Amino acid sequence: MYLPVASDATPVHPRPPPLPRRLRCLVVDLFKYVQHPHIAVRRREGPARTTDERVGRNGRIGLFITTVVGTMWAAYLFTALALVSLPSAIRSHDLIIIVAWTAQTFLQLVLLPIIIVGQNVQARTADRRAEQTYDDVEAVLDECRQLRAHLQAQERALDAFMRRLDGPTADGA
Predict the structure, then answer these.
(1) Is residue 121 included in any domain, yes or no?
(2) Rounded to an integer, what distance in angstroms lies between the CA atom of residue 31 and that of residue 8?
(3) 157 in a domain, yes or no?
(4) Residue pLDDT tens, the chain, 173 long
(5) 20 to 30 A from 52, CA-CA: which of 7, 37, 120, 163?
(6) C-alpha span between 75 and 109 (Å, rounded)
(7) Is residue 92 within 8 Å of residue 98, measured between CB atoms?
(8) Is 6 a member of any domain?
(9) Are 12 and 4 in contact (CB under 8 A)?
(10) pLDDT at 1
(11) Angle (CA) 57 58 63, round 5°
């Protein structure tokens, strides 16, 4: 849009006509904030954690066994236990028995607790990541609330400005 230019080469900004009162009310009532119900639920519950999943007697038993077996100490103990039968497997000079000892005794017995240890580390990392994401979302939500408050303050300032532009009316508003 081209604006008319005054003789001193500064643009002349024509004063826009004031908005009719019914349109100003429409602009103010255009948006009403309603908080999403999920926000209150998440604030109350917090982030989900692996430890929240223990339920019932079987769950507690399974968790206890996993906690005990899923340690490096259990891996060391199972290694020692597997090595007890290694001399007799070697003395047999039978390749099938040596392969069976390696696959069925050593690998299964020793790798099981090591894999559980790795999964526990991954679960703790996932829990920490979930909590960080939860905290990040809380921060973004707080920023959005502050932005909303800022916009409301601007809206009040614009309303006051519009009232000043209109001047006093016959109804005294």
Answers:
(1) yes
(2) 43
(3) yes
(4) 444 545 555 555 566 566 556 555 545 555 666 777 777 777 787 777 766 666 788 888 888 888 888 889 999 999 999 999 999 999 999 999 999 999 988 888 889 899 999 998 898 898 889 888 888 888 888 888 888 888 888 888 888 888 888 776 555 55
(5) 37
(6) 8
(7) yes
(8) no
(9) yes
(10) 43
(11) 100
Q: What is the pTM of this model?
A: 0.53
- How far is the C-alpha of 133 from the C-alpha of 121, rounded, in Å? 18
Q: How far apart are CA 4 and CA 12, in angstroms?
A: 6
The residues that bridge with 5 in the sheet, in sequence order, are: 11
**Domain extent for 150:** 57-166
Ramachandran class of 11: left when φ > 0, alpha when ψ lies in -120 to 50, beta otherwise: beta
pLDDT of 141: 87
**Residue 13 placed within a domain:** no
Provide the 3-class DSSP secondary structure of residue 3: coil
Helices 108-166 and 72-84, packing angle to 10 deg:
160
How many domains is the chain built from? 1
Task: Find residue 11's DSSP bridge partners.
Answer: 5
Supply 16's token pair: 């826009």
